[in-house]
Amino acid sequence: MADKSKLWYLENFNLFENLDSKSMMELDKLIIDTETQTNEPVYFESDPSQTIYFLKKGRVKITKYLPDGSEKIIAIINPGEVFGEMAFLDEKERHDYAVTVDPARICAINKNDLAAFIEKNPALNLKMTKVIGLKLKKFSERIEDLIFKDADQRVTSFVLRYAEKNGKTVGEQIFVKPFLKHQTIGELTACSRQTVNTILTSLRKRGLIDFDRNKLIINDKKKLKEIVE
Prior knowledge:
This protein has about 230 residues and is an alpha+beta fold. The chain contains eight helices and twelve strands. A hairpin with a 5-residue loop joins strand 4 and strand 5.
């Protein structure tokens, strides 16, 4: 099969799903489409915040580097998601780094071009506001987890949300591919890699989940929710 076009990806992005063909062709001209490899930076901290990105393939991590040089992962961006969206709210410069986790396909648009396009397609304004609102809600949920939940609950809660967001339901199970490294899950849940491994292994022994480096399977969503609550 021939490589999918930039326009195909845009048409299958939820934010643009109801645009007519004329608007899609106009948007296509505004978008810069890039294929990247693993561990390639998309933007750096303190870069001018002028671009909004739409991830169509692969994964991107949003991360910060601490004074001691260590890395702190803030979020994992999956296909179909927007990142760098604070530019839309007139953020002047970046406050984090965006780096690819896998080979990725990224569509980028200048924030002024997007603003002008939205003026012609006002329904997108509400959609974009919802996208940003949902992302802020997710950050709020993570903060609540860090404050009010123990390690078992934090890791289980993360696994559930990750599966619900990125997985495919087949019968009573949810399949997610690919899965994340335990170190990454640890950074997102304020746990050590060893703690994450212990908790996930325990959930697997109880038959609630199954996993390896490439996939995660949720076998009993109800019992996982009971652990979190």
